[in-house]
Amino acid sequence: MKRFGIIGHPVAGSMSPLLFAAAYEGRYPYDLIEEASFETAWQRFLADYEGVNVTAPFKQQAFGRADKASEAATRCQAANLIVKTPDGLAAYNTDVAGVLESLRPEVQSGQKALVVGAGGAARAAIVAAQMLGLEVTVAGRTPSKTEALGREMGCRAIGLEEATSETPAVVIYTLPGSAPVPSGLPLSRAVVLEAEYKHPQLSSAPCRKYLSGRLWLVHQALSGYKLFTGKDPSVQRIWQTINTQ
Fold first, then answer.
1. Which residue, 73, 114, 143, 218, has fewest beta-carbon neighbours within 10 Å?
2. CATH fold of the domain at 97-211
3. Catalytic residues, which ones?
């Protein structure tokens, strides 16, 4: 029987096993592969699993080990899903799909997007926004990291303090729930998509429309799980599981 799992450190709090079990009514085993060492986690994947989700801090390392990669993974230079195929290991980035499908009904090409944060989720958010034809600015807490990300991704980079003067139609907020929300973010006229789904910070913030990280999570899961199995997962059961957490 095919087995799947998730590698990263830590992964104990991941909802992936619950969502995967709901998506396919428990027909496929799905394990938490908790290893601090990427190499140890990778060898467990190669030995025992058909595919794995990949979370921090292993996404870029996993991408580097793949034999082929999707456009999204290549543009991100990071993978959150690796699948064994007859042609080798295939790398995907379904974080990008999560943002694309969450925002697609809400935006128009040429609008301005502000991505808040400069980590892995921000990288995926930038790629998705660019694929939607948006004019992207990234604002981060660490100037050197933000500037480097902007250069790599081909978008404008600013400090968080400069974001107050922006006028975006879309704000993609990727800072963790444990981080304080920067003051003065230009949210009131924007569609706001927040990556954090366990401890959201902006769900009650005044904005044009708020899109929960749970929407991002569902679209990511739908895309990724079908890549694993080749079969459509149950949207209804995934939503039911998320809404009970």
1. 143
2. Rossmann fold (3.40.50)
3. 59
